[in-house]
## 1
Amino acid sequence: MKKIYNEDTIDKIGEEVELFGWVQNIRDHKKIVFVDLRDRTGIVQVVGDEKFRKLSPEDVISVKGVVKERPKNLVNPKLMSKDDLNVTLPTLLDYRALTLRHPKVRAIFEVQEVVIDSFRKTMKEFGFVEFQAPLIVPSKTEGGAEVFAVKYFHYDVYLGQSPQLYKQIMLGAFEKVFTVTRAFRAEPSVTTRHLTEYISLDAEMAFIDSWQEILEAVEALIRKIMETVEESCKEQLRMYNAKVPKVSKKIPQLKLKEAQELIYKRTKRDIRGEPDLSPTDEEEICKWVFEEKSSEFVFITHYPLEKRPFYTHPDPKDPNHTLSFDLLCRGLEWVTGGQRINDYNHLVENIKKWGDAPYDFELYLQAFRFGMPPEGGFCLGAERITEKILGLANVREASLFPRDMERVDVGRAKNNLELRVKNYELN
Amino acid sequence: MKKIYNEDTIDKIGEEVELFGWVQNIRDHKKIVFVDLRDRTGIVQVVGDEKFRKLSPEDVISVKGVVKERPKNLVNPKLMSKDDLNVTLPTLLDYRALTLRHPKVRAIFEVQEVVIDSFRKTMKEFGFVEFQAPLIVPSKTEGGAEVFAVKYFHYDVYLGQSPQLYKQIMLGAFEKVFTVTRAFRAEPSVTTRHLTEYISLDAEMAFIDSWQEILEAVEALIRKIMETVEESCKEQLRMYNAKVPKVSKKIPQLKLKEAQELIYKRTKRDIRGEPDLSPTDEEEICKWVFEEKSSEFVFITHYPLEKRPFYTHPDPKDPNHTLSFDLLCRGLEWVTGGQRINDYNHLVENIKKWGDAPYDFELYLQAFRFGMPPEGGFCLGAERITEKILGLANVREASLFPRDMERVDVGRAKNNLELRVKNYELN
């Protein structure tokens, strides 16, 4: 087993070491050949003779030699990240097994794991219990046609659009729960914000007195995640020249209606009465909250009943609107959540109203048929958070192996036949 | 928000508190009515008057009152778990939303989360990096027909049988990786050991000198998980009268052939030459290793080429057998792993030999087309480990929402129509 990493050579100057890694590049100066040897911790320059000429980039090698300090005038603290990866998005993804090896690409997923870890750690500190949600499910939870069917023996089942129903069932045993899971949406369009498979960070809490307690939990969580990323990902943030968004002392809240009024006042675009905000609207509201409230986050609340799933709790004071919210940051929805209906009959009625069969929701309804306390919860998309922290242009860059309607690993479109012919002669 | 849990009342004797929870049961003594109030931390007996008679089991209530110490002669330290849940497996699972609330059922999943957490923590200590594997995949990784197809726009895709290929791709960037993920197997049979969806704890390591380093990593990991469960789950183990399996100083290793010889000698059943061990064989070998080597774990190694997936490294000394292993404990396979082929041409050849199209493995092959070091890895099934630690009879008991060919949430068989009629009058 490999004993030391490249970064450990700093403490071994003058000693003989054996290093293992990949050839990053080769510079041939006739008698002397330089090889940049890469491993997961960095690059070491290896000085060798003509034999090194036989090497190619990405060859795996081991070398033995004495560690020398780099002459002070040649030290380049940005060596690891000086090269940008100037490729188009399809190339970046069609060659993912290679592009992942680039330190700047690797950095994205280092940040993502810090976000996920920090979510897990914080939820535990808040007294939430982790569980594993099932992904093959008997029902459509979020409504709509955006669901993938699975050929499952002779039954109709789907890939879970969210762990929503299972989070709620779990409350009966654990009161406060969270899960790091996968959610699937059969989005029939290709946008910069959507993936068909994404990492969902989900939480649910029972015995709330007010739905504001859910927003408070989100605020405390986001504050903690941002602090952790800022502290643990200094080098990665530097590579992207990125700053973690600031969480103001109290995140401002706007009702959807108020947000629409504001947009009308600022831009004269009249979207009052629309059931939701468009991407342009979300950008405008984020601009407003930054300019007027010095905050990069804003809660939009009270979406209309028609735009939210069947389990969303109506606002008792205004039953056509719901106790629901989105948290926006840098023009994108980061978190969505709200209070849920905890009355059995109301849920059965809504499932029918949404055109589904209550029997497909049997385990879920069971949890409410007896007793369930007032409750609510929320979910975060790990890719979107990573994207927006680093200022990436497309959510796909923040997914290790992004899936959309035209891509599962390599692009599935016809013109990728080229790749197929080249590599396998159409075998 | 609920401020204190039932267990906190121990420190509040003589104080007035407000408790929130579920009615476990009601004992009516005319003027006095006793209610056992349950929350996630335990049960508190509440003494009330006739008004309590209106309550039903599983009602959610809050009560205010003064905390009194239980008279010493009535203290029952096993109160939480004295009631067993005497129901059949189909009932246990068809009423999962309710049965989960039973402390003894809840305990199973508390143990499972300790297993998963301990896996994560230990792999990080060993220098492995966590990543999120995709679940919608373009290829069958483990061969065979045991794969679920997903209706995915106009492409043929599947649910991942394992994160194998992605673990290997990730090595190029991170050298040592792990993932807590889901694996899907379209097992067409209903046994006590199989689920169609299970929690896979997966790891992969590059730059190995010998495949024995993989077995060493497994041994150290299992030792750590067992120690952690023993230390953190005392109450849960007591409920099940269970003992964590002992990991001997060095886990014995047997080649498959040697195991078969042993079974023949001990039982006169001649299974020599079979390509794999049957469940009965696995039980016999576990018996042997316990009796003869005082170990509850045993590695079986060198399975024949034909029984292992295309990526398995052949044994250079005996190319019809592989550098692969299973770790058995208490009659069941807990871990499977081995060294992988890291030569591009060999992989392409094998994919064709297994009847698949290399193009469907493009990203994977890309990782090897340039350079990939010697490497290997392993995976653990979280449900099986939980099952065997607690001595459960069926792996389904160790899955929160088990899926098999006849069950997704509630049983899908025709006779469950009864439940449907009863609850929804066939709406």
## 2
Amino acid sequence: MKAIKDSVHDYITLDPAAADLLDTDAVQRLRHIKQLSTVRLVYPSASHTRFEHSLGVYHLASRALDSLGIEGDRARHVRAAALLHDVGHGPYGHQTETVIERHTGQHHDEVGDLLGRTDAADVLEFHDLDPDRVAALVRGEGELGQLVSGELDVDRMDYLVRDAHHTGVPYGTIDHERLVRELRYSDGRLVLEEGNVRTAESLLLARALMDATVYRHHVSRIAGAMLERASERLIASGIDVGTFRRMADHDLLVALREDVPELGRRIEYRDLYKRAVWAELGDVPADVVELDHAGERAAERDIADVAGVDDRDVLVDVPGRPTFTEAASRVVVNGVPQRLEDASELVSGLRAAQRAGWRMGVYAPEEHVDEVAAATEAVLGVRAVAP
Amino acid sequence: MKAIKDSVHDYITLDPAAADLLDTDAVQRLRHIKQLSTVRLVYPSASHTRFEHSLGVYHLASRALDSLGIEGDRARHVRAAALLHDVGHGPYGHQTETVIERHTGQHHDEVGDLLGRTDAADVLEFHDLDPDRVAALVRGEGELGQLVSGELDVDRMDYLVRDAHHTGVPYGTIDHERLVRELRYSDGRLVLEEGNVRTAESLLLARALMDATVYRHHVSRIAGAMLERASERLIASGIDVGTFRRMADHDLLVALREDVPELGRRIEYRDLYKRAVWAELGDVPADVVELDHAGERAAERDIADVAGVDDRDVLVDVPGRPTFTEAASRVVVNGVPQRLEDASELVSGLRAAQRAGWRMGVYAPEEHVDEVAAATEAVLGVRAVAP
Amino acid sequence: MKAIKDSVHDYITLDPAAADLLDTDAVQRLRHIKQLSTVRLVYPSASHTRFEHSLGVYHLASRALDSLGIEGDRARHVRAAALLHDVGHGPYGHQTETVIERHTGQHHDEVGDLLGRTDAADVLEFHDLDPDRVAALVRGEGELGQLVSGELDVDRMDYLVRDAHHTGVPYGTIDHERLVRELRYSDGRLVLEEGNVRTAESLLLARALMDATVYRHHVSRIAGAMLERASERLIASGIDVGTFRRMADHDLLVALREDVPELGRRIEYRDLYKRAVWAELGDVPADVVELDHAGERAAERDIADVAGVDDRDVLVDVPGRPTFTEAASRVVVNGVPQRLEDASELVSGLRAAQRAGWRMGVYAPEEHVDEVAAATEAVLGVRAVAP
Amino acid sequence: MKAIKDSVHDYITLDPAAADLLDTDAVQRLRHIKQLSTVRLVYPSASHTRFEHSLGVYHLASRALDSLGIEGDRARHVRAAALLHDVGHGPYGHQTETVIERHTGQHHDEVGDLLGRTDAADVLEFHDLDPDRVAALVRGEGELGQLVSGELDVDRMDYLVRDAHHTGVPYGTIDHERLVRELRYSDGRLVLEEGNVRTAESLLLARALMDATVYRHHVSRIAGAMLERASERLIASGIDVGTFRRMADHDLLVALREDVPELGRRIEYRDLYKRAVWAELGDVPADVVELDHAGERAAERDIADVAGVDDRDVLVDVPGRPTFTEAASRVVVNGVPQRLEDASELVSGLRAAQRAGWRMGVYAPEEHVDEVAAATEAVLGVRAVAP
């Protein structure tokens, strides 16, 4: 069996199908998509890729299947889905997924057509693996799909540990060996065995701390907003969205530099906009919180107008209300599987902390920050907060 | 400058006074007192000592002083206090401290008389360090004392990271470099600088997770209760409490084996009592929760009576109501120092989680577990819960 | 002072000049040049960049300067040189440096003109730093230059530890804190203080093990040879070498795909040539070992001719004879600075081991491996060895 | 299956026999024997025990057996032997083994009688494990015995990694996952599979660097010599050697303090003798290098006589000539199993380095160092070297 050295899980041993899938363009492309996209502008060590993450998810899926006693054909499909779960990502991963969804209606976990038309299709067929079944597992369907995409999935377990390892931040540390070992099925639902309320909580806490210090860091959000806007303009300039979606990071960087040069250069050399406004949930009117994509764009135009700047110089970034998938994970307490939010006193506190950490941002080139701040208050009724 | 290799902080560089203090019997004795006493019966790798912890606290104190810009005489006293802060511990550290307090009225952070009569006194004098001032710092007195003993002290920062490293548990991980770097004084109180609510929360979360998985593990509590009872009998058998307090772990193990042979042997070879009762806070009558030492002993005799066993075969272990020192740590928010419990939505959830994790235990030799469980229900009205 | 989190050294604190230099395009470009270029085709976790490495070298330089007691202007220039030492690298770092040297006569540590004409020039001037002096330090000139580029330089210390961390290989581990702490000057030469023969040896051993398992891995060498050849063709196709040198990894990948599509695709998707020949030093005629670039190309044409394949399908890869810079590092033994090769019994063994590990390779597309192997024996008298 | 958290290998899963063996007094006693005895006087973090090491050896043995495809009864015996391989150690492990061998003729790997008469005997019988077969495996007998005790045994792999982890030294790092995975049997000999000369060398290098910086550190050697002499006097004072052998560290510390108070106190509080003489192999006459135990004692008396000090104040410490077990490990090269010393150019260099690192020591209380140095030159013709 082929073994690959990984800096998180040490050796990862591949089954024959995985070894062949690894050599497909669809998977090799993931070498060129960074796991944390713009986060590495804050944490320089975080340049790891979705390729190594996919290997890690494959590894944890194998361990979970062993622990659950699942073998044979079913296990082979789950392992393939684990390895392929990210092939639907566009360049810069999550940072472009809303762009792609807006233009194609497709989420990154819709990999069916990708598996059907890439070289991965032949490899799957050769190993008697059904692409539709693999695609359904990637979407999290069925009992086994929960292992790949769900509240207790191995995707989450790998990225928390891996992102912590590569950023150098001490917060993503979870006991993944224990989590994997304590998984059980109860009436078709994946649950953690008795005695693991704390193990489940640690997953939540890791997520919450990583959100606050890594995933939602304002510098990464600013760069992400710039990237999203630049991508929109790139597509508007005539790049086909199908082509866009199949790009890797290097393709996008070069394409932006050529077709959206101002933003392209700023992203490449980390010459970022600054925060004109950075407002808490309580300081933002409800209708602003609810703004959709078109609403954000309209607001940008209005703010630019009032501020007397080009409307490319205003970025309005209103994140969705905080969600908390992990709160729905299930753990057995006194013999009964319960949702973690019912079993743990911590969940409501974490929810509140996440709401407290929510921020709306308005970004502008450094020289226009003051006008944009003032205009935002005039247009949206949101006051600038000294960042 | 002398440098010592440490598995947590790499090299620790000692100032001349620290280098000399290190060679005193008072500090060398800490080589023979394990940091986590009975915890290593659960986590075999956790046999680290208060000696290496003291070096770690010294190291973090030095870094904090540098960051705060405190130098000269004041800094030298703080560093000495950091190195000496644990010399007052009896054998097995926290596990015997209530025994010692009951018999002497002295807490382990009362090191004044120790510093006065040991070889450390000469070293302090030689380096122009005032033993009384050092002792006051160990008690946490004054502005600088907060660095050694307080809600944001370097003691806590070292032990969380060190205990995690040695147990192998991934939960004690805090960003101690950041914590130390962000300390400030505000009106004489030690606070964390603006932008560190999450840093402060991480300290709390680390503590809560370590409590649940390490410090309050039931096996460690059972062994601790056995050790405490054995120590009481040792003192009752005629060992002077002053002598007892100055023992190190090896002295106590040998003394117990000779003078309290039954429990001594059980502790040495990890042949522990089992849980007859393990009850949550809501299932324990308030007057039982309030039992003091004498009350616990009386309850043991009553239970033994009803169960028809020797009263040495019943251990009643009622921990105090959960406290949460770290909740009072201060962090600057929008320019104003606030108590963390006011600035963070997480604290109340953590408090609730700690209450939920509170357990009263009644322990007995395996062969008497059933009788003791029944008798406990009859005597105290507390039902056994299947552990 | 600005502090950046690093996964190897934890927080790296920047002086004001470094903080400003970091924002220049010259340094930001290093975010897009991977430290280990083609090595990550073997070790997927190794996608770290020259940007984070430059920060690490800056950090170790600061520590070394502190330990040596060097301050002020001299220290500021060394720190700037440490941060800038890699700005002269072309895309894919070492893998393209011979191409660039052939076409420009310039080595990657010639950064003088780069510092003169980029935005870094203004920053240096603003902070009263002399670009020529910085450039001389990068070339390793003068007493202080040895810290930046020499047998005991901090560049080496950082990359060994960092490359080990990111590959996951346990071999690059050196005691960099001790190395930095034990540096001294003796008659203008940087040496390790008395008692450090073993510390110096460990640097050698780390290098030797990393060479064998990481830096000289055959898969990385094959990809490197493909990349070098593709770069030659790219330049031949009309790309100006100055433009080429200033490219980053993403630029090169895209340019190759467009202008050298066959090799470009293979490199991007790791569809690599295979070893037709893999021969030890003793099995290769001396005149073949001595082949220069033109000689290698001629040999490729001859082999292709005999094998009946396109001459693009043959890559001859003859590395230089092994060298061993670290053997010349100096360490004080019984009061006298000695070259490590005179003080350590290990060096000759390591030299021999390096000669034993030397391999000449001839690579070809998988389907032509047999013909190319046979033709290589006919043309160069080198027998294929089953890899 | 019972799982135990380990700071080196994460979770260690125990088979039913191992879980029961773990609870025996014979194995629990190992909790009280430190792995590195006097080394922790140099590296304070190194207070790990033979208990956790035994678990680690058990774990690696399980992995090796899996990799070799060995199952059933044979595997169960190997796993039991791995767990029990150190039960024959006396207090302070290797530091007292020559004392015990001199008085009993028994080496620490002679565990047959221990397994026969302790509570482990019943557990072995209950699980259908043959104590004689287990004892033979511990002695390294038979094909499978090589896994437990031999040049490529899992004991070595665990202790190198574990000792590095706990000391904090970066040198013991080996790729144990790869080593275990690449083990094969060839004609009944354990060998490393093709392509692992470097893997085998790394084991050697790790050992050599750990020897130099950890295992043979002069402070540890001085304390070890004091401990050995104190143990001799303890036995001379009437302690039965059988009783002595069954002591754990704490028993010995207390016994020494009572019966050999002067040395006992010095060992407990690290108040150590100093080096009067520290001489290289080339500076020591051959007949002195060959001194046996009686010869060393006679030399001490003569030196004390000449120096005019009590003969307890002189410790002569002549280590055996360096050996290099790992050099005999076998690795497959071009299809043929070879001894590493024949396959690797490094071995002779390492041998030479080990000879160069050999030191004879003569130790004395600080106040007598000068007289003892002079007397040693007069009596043995060995010159003091400034340490």
